[in-house]
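Much of our argument rests on the idea that a fold can be written as discrete symbols. Part of our work consisted of pairing the sequence of a single chain with a tokenised description of its backbone. We regard such an encoding as a compact summary of how the chain folds. The amino acid sequence and the backbone structure tokens for this protein are reproduced below.
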Amino acid sequence: MKGIIVAGGLGTRLYPLTKVISKHLLPIYDKPMIYYPLSILMMADIKQILIITAPTDHGQYKRLLGNGTQLGCDFQYAVQNQPNGIAQAFIIGENFIGDDKVALILGDNFFYGIDLTSELQALTNMDGAYIFAYEVADPDRYGIVELDQNDKPISIEEKPNNPKSNYAITGLYFFDKDVITIAKNIQPSHRGEYEITDINKVYFQRNKLQVKKLDKTIIWFDMGTFQSLNDASQQASKWAARPSGPARPSPARPTRPKEDFQLGRAGSVGQDRW
């Protein structure tokens, strides 16, 4: 399985900060935002990762992350010239994906949970599509999935005015190789974007969409607002204050402020081991 991090877009909700720097390079406590979604892919044991950026930010990501070899990974880069939607990432990454399955994560998504590693690694052998749902107070901001009493999907909507559910679809998706063909055949939405929700709908119509409902032992933030940036940074600082040990399982946890992000040891982020 291969991985894609989508780190493009304009980040308009975070103006004026994002007029001069990519949203996904903003600090979350003592690490750039993009380290957190990168951690999730590495927790899933995904080593080949394509990072898709806006044209103006391409060089910054390459300087920050390099080619990935010092982390035991292979990082490749591509540009999304216009913010035409998340689903376009599969077309941009067609040659990179090849005949493999692929996990896509949005560059502003923040996950933490003790049971995440085993859950993610099990998905490398999945078929169809697999997404995660998280209960939120403001469902009109997200793609929403409606679930039946057995947590099977009933309907999917993109940022509905009258949501049928409070379960947001998080920015972490697992797909089989059919996703490329599906992405090529969807049409732009009324927003003029190729929506990831439309890809999920195709898998749903084929009865090949699985949904995992995350409980509150998992922390998830969409770090696209000033409030969520602050909330994520506060959570990250709490991890940094804890002693090392099994109680701190996530490789995304931040280091102490005096420590730097070190790429000198394979499989390490800061002082953390993968």
About this structure: Residues 105 and 136 are 19 Å apart (CA to CA). The first strand starts at residue 2 and ends at 7. The domain at 2-133+169-273 is CATH 3.90.550.10 (Spore Coat Polysaccharide Biosynthesis Protein SpsA; Chain A).
